[in-house]
Amino acid sequence: MRRVVKTSPRNNIYQENVYRTGTNDIWNCLTCNLCYDGCPQGVNYSEFIKEVRDKMDSSHEVHKGVFTTLSELMSELNESRTSLNETGNADSKIGYYPGCLDFHDMFFNLDVDFKSIADSSLKLLEHLDMNPRIMQMKCCGHDQLWQGDKETFDKLKEQNTNLIKDSGIETLVTSCAECYRTLSQDYDLPVEVVHISQLLKDADLGVDSGVKVTYHDACRLGRHMGEYDAPRNVLTGAGAEVTEMQHNKSESWCCGVSSMMNCDDKSKALRKARLDEAKATSAEVLITTCPKCLAHLTCMKDEQESTEQYDYDIKDLTVFLAEQMGEK
Amino acid sequence: MSKLVGAVAVAGGGVAGIQSAIDLASSGLKVYLIEKGTSIGGKMAQLDKTFPTLDCSMCTLSPKLAEVARHPNIELLTYSEIVGIEGEAGDFTVKVKKKARYVDPEKCTACELCISKCPVKVPDEYNEGQGVRKAIYLAFPQAVPRVFTIDAEHCIYLTKGKCGNCAKVCENDAINYEDRDEEVELNVGSVILSPGFTPFDASQLEQFRLDHPNVITSLQFERQLSSSGPFEGHVTLADGSHPKRIAWIQCVGSRSPEIGRANCSSVCCMYATKEAMVAMEHDPGLETTIFNIDVRAFGKGFEEFYQKAKNEKGIRFIRSRPSGVEVDPLTNQLSLKYEVEANGINQEEFDMVVLSIGLSPSESSQQLAEISNVELDDLGFIKTEIDSPMETSRPGIFVCGAVQAPKDIPDTVADASGAASKASSLLASERGTLITDKENPPEKAIGDEVRTGVVVCRCGINIGSIVDVPAVVEYAKTLPGVVFAKEEVYACSSDSLAGISDLIKEHDLNRVVVASCTPRTHEPLFQDTLIEAGLNPYLFELANIREHCSWVHQNEKEKATRKARDIVRMSTARVNLTQPLYTEKIQFDNDALVLGGGIAGMTAALDIADKGFHVTLVEKEPELGGLLRTYTRLQDGRRTSEVIEPLIQRVESHDNITVFKDTELIELEGSMGNFNGHLKGDNVDEEIGFGVAVIATGANELIPDGYFSYGEYPNIVTQSQLEPMMDTGVDAKTVVFIQCAGGRNDERPYCSRACCTVAMKNAILLKESDPDRNVYVLYRDVRTFGKWEELYTRARELGVVFMRYTDTLEPEVTDRTVSVIDHLLGVNFEINYDLLVLSAPMVTPDTNEILAPLFKVPLDANRFFLEAHIKLKPVEFATDGVFLCGTAQAPKLVDEAVSQASAAASRACTILTRDYLETIGNVSVVDPELCIGCGRCTLVCPFNAPELKEIVVETEEIIYTTKKSEINPTICKGCGSCAPECPTSAITPRHFTGPQIMAVIKAYGEGIQ
Q1: Contact residues, chain A, for B960 at CB < 8 Å
Q2: Which residue in B261, B707, B907, B914 is a FRET match for B443, CA 20 to 30 A apart?
Q3: C-alpha to C-alpha distance for B504 and B499, rounded to whole angstroms
Q4: In this complex, is the C-beta atom of A128 within 8 Å of any C-beta atom belonging to chain B?
Q5: Cβ separation A265–B948 shorter than 8 A
Q6: Are residues A139 and A223 in the same domain?
Q7: Digit-coded pLDDT (tens) for B105-157
């Protein structure tokens, strides 16, 4: 972020912890963990940000805060869930949690079919002979946690945890990097949480696509959870030719928008930089594992009167793989 | 002309007069709008929906009524008649008789208290005699002015000296039984006649049995369909049940020379189709049948509407006109006898029969014509010429609307603006001489402390009898920011308004809430009061506790009071956060660009130039003249060159017009007031600036390749090829015309409007030049609408043979023969022809696809330019400052193109005559730091106000080029469509900010237990 705005982690920590004055600069942080990864002192600045934002009125959300309002409502209502109208195999010990994909479809008028991520994930799991139960959970609360609304997050966490416990599953699969991070790190679950790429990394999908792709590390899957290799292995295993962008893996740049905040002309510079890096690889497809990276990168790529031309497709990992399998 | 007076009298307050008045008043002239009835609005106010879009008629009209009522340059004289016109062009004295209303317009607040006490019931004219009104009445709920009138003929007090109830109950002392007619003299420079039409009186045709309760006129049916009508929108029979089978009989009082109504009434086919369609929407099981001679669906979108009615909605169109309505003497059952083509006579029963009555000149319009000393035509319409359709025989007196010929709303509106243009050209030097600007006191600073005043209106008994007004006042006093609250009997009465102004000063108020009625009609009134008291008008909020509360909760007084408190609380929460907003005055370029040098473009250019503005006229071809170079004759027998040559000469010699021929507009940027265009031609390469543009780029005749063997044989030509041939003499004993050659098909589903009239004209010319010649016209429907029906009659009298074909059974053409199945006889005919003439439709030039995105204006499905509103804005685009006329909008005849051209000029001059462009205060603004340039706002804005502009963003390390939205304040109407669409909340509608709306929602929430 400091590439595009004046921001100083050190100053923010001083203002907060030493002078106790606070600063508006804490809202600039994308919590992408790039600084933590490079910090010789090991300061976990993102965790610091998460804590100081607690109980502050963010009002920095984009899309009029509609996603936050929805989550708040969900935490108040009994019968509300984010997932799709299917139950899958109710006896399975494996649960699949689609996250808030259907709300993305509802509120974004982008040329992206978010639900296809869930459909593709189920298709891939089926290929692995896993016939999961579809988890009718509420929103995982990721955005509320990072927006400083811990109260809502805690409610969602409690309700979801009970639901998972009651379901009797042993493994919870997510296709979203944010859900994966949240359920693994910010929840305290008695089940194993995995990202779908981790299940697929050694699988034989029976395809040899030969498509030239590049992979954008979502910060929640990469730096937050340390998973860099699984998605790449899946892609290589499926015969895709993976070309790396200039900044990749632990040095990967952020998509520029975090937790439905920070969308403005400064963070757009980051998106542009990232899209330019992808363009330089001359890949046909830019792959990511986070629906938000997908939404925000696509938003810029598909602008009405863009000053830039990006010819490649942007796809979620699962959608790309399922499509390759379908073409076989 | 020795003297010119900068004022115009407009006679007739229907949609025509309204449009003329608005155009003239907005161009700096004083207008007297004189209406015979008690309210302006005319026949359009009685219609339920309008074809072909099924828009609510009143919903589109009532904003225009309100605009007239509020316009500072329009003086409204309703319930008034012109009794004399003396003088000459530029200086007329118009004598007007103002009939006694017996109600003081200054005091009446239209509270309706008097209605309930008036004992006299009179058949309601607004509902065409279906239902009753009282002797003291308002013509209809949206009437302008909102002043009651006592019908002296029926009032018991005025006729017998008894009763007097209305005076007793009126709390405002508005009743004045001593009121007398008075005569006023107006000095004006010009007069516009727009008295409209009268619906044909079908009772004189006894065979149609209008005496039977279930035989009604189309206008009565229109009222039945209306939710404000006698049966709240339910079509109802005399016994209270609802019909299952309804028949329409077309041409009642039209196309009937035997009763002196030879003309076609132009609108009936479409209104009947619309009425049937709307009735079926109300009752899906309804069976509807329209008996017609031809279905005249000739206007823009009409043919498509007709096809939809026939093929999708299942409306039956039967090509036969029953000679009367049969009534069974025993059962009273209605039935119709009609001819079935080639199959004898049929008789069918119906529950209801609607007579599609025609448009006739009214008696009062005939009197007006006499007073005005203008000539009438044989049918009783005011006489004009094809090339000057708004000019009467008396200079300085102009005409518009259905008094000139039967016509629909858009043609009437175009005429009306056109007539305004003519009057305005005459008086161009006197603009601004008779109008006065209002002086307002300086605005006071509002400071930081919120000091809100709340006025709760009783609206007589409207609110006061349901809502506990004193309780609401006491409650308002407890709300945050409120320093004063009181009640008023009528907040809108002039003494109350003065009272509000005093309160503002006395209590140093800096925000005002009036809890009364709808902002639609009353907000501007209260805002003016704020301005007069030195407060910014945006520091005001109207809490609607009448329409939204007392009227809809009449049986729940307690709950209504609670809701009134909620509404007042919410309004107060919002008003406390409002800030003063200011308009901006912007200098602009008052030159005009006219694209297209046909008759429309040249007329528009001259009309603008005659008002003193510079015009650049651009023509793609090497010569001016357009389509009328191809066609050589007009329907009235004149050569087109007689019309076009003097026009070209005037254009080319006009001081204010620069003509570029062989030139096209290739680039354009900017918006209303400040356009910059690039003209390119063989010898032209020029940048020009202009404030408004008129698109008059016309249409071409289709080259009908592939239709009826065109191009295969030399003796097959089109109408435009035939016309020059007739000058040298056509050597053909047998001539066959085929209509709709390449039109009304899947590829071009529209009707080309002019071809039937053109064909009649040419058939007559061929027959007249050689009476022994055989002329056949093969047609699908003969659409010689309006006065041009006369040509159809004449052609038949001369012996032209008409044979109908259908789209499924088209004539077959060989090198010498045409074979066609005549539907009337069911027999196949083979005609040996010497010359075959195809009537091909008008099609759009390819340049439309280039011009439309350049001006950011839309094209319709047939690639003609699409106007802003098909009824009321026929020559405007949703994009401000760009206008449209002639065949670029849709196929049309010469007089219609001329009227539209003058209309476009008139509308353009309402902008050009301004000293500066003024924005509104409540525009939307973009925060450039938050804008990410996604362009969503540009997609949703109905007015093209946001524009993406390229800028360089410099961040700490990354510098990049992107686009960002900029909202043009001169175009933005403050509707707020863009703001919710913006993903980053970069757009704020300044009078509906996020915090203001949140405050209202939160205030609402406070009321929930």
Answers
A1: 268-269, 272
A2: B914
A3: 9
A4: no
A5: no
A6: no
A7: 989 988 888 999 999 999 999 999 999 999 999 999 889 998 999 999 999 99
